[in-house]
Give the backbone structure.
Amino acid sequence: MLRTLALSASLLGLAATLAVATPADARKQKMQPQVTDFTATMPAAPPAPPADGAIFHASYGYAALTSGARAAMVGDLVTIQLVEATQAQKSNSADTSRTSNIGLTPPTTGPLSFFSSTDASMGGSGTFKGKGDAAQSNALTGNITVTIAQVLPNNVYLIRGEKHLTLNRGDEVIQIAGLIRAADIDSTNTVLSTRVANAQINYTGKGEIARASTQGWLGRFFSRVSPF
């Protein structure tokens, strides 16, 4: 009896797990953005200097002479040069044809000689031809200055930041987060966006220009439910 109850509880737990963790939920969780906070990271306050009488302490911003003024600590500024350009193109086509004929020659004598050969013949044909093309291209250029949010042990920095632009016809927001190498930072503290690993770049806008380029809610509704 106890074994039966334990087996039933195990089956119910497995069913609940399968009901909760569906493939659709897994894909949805995978598509969710990894970073939601793009606010600037401020450097941590240095600790109180030890009373050792020294005039130099590394905790107050030590940088090696070989690195110059390159960003290397949490809160330092890094300029990301956006040079994003993507292009995709896809084409497919299909062409099929099929023809079939069948005919019977009736006897000229006997009980089946009352119909002609044209009454016992049939044929059929079918053709299909389809073609599809799709093309898409995107480009994003500009500069955005971000801060180092975390310094990893392998000389890789986690950076994030955002820029808000208020124009006369609307607002624009640029957000970026990702990982950069210390070796990719040049003498002007600039890194190409193509050098950002695990990059998350968001470019959004709102205002009358953005509203004019968006389909209305009623049109979106009919485009979803229309079978044509």
Observations:
- Residues 67-86+139-221 form one domain.
- Residues 90 and 134 are 5 Å apart (CA to CA).
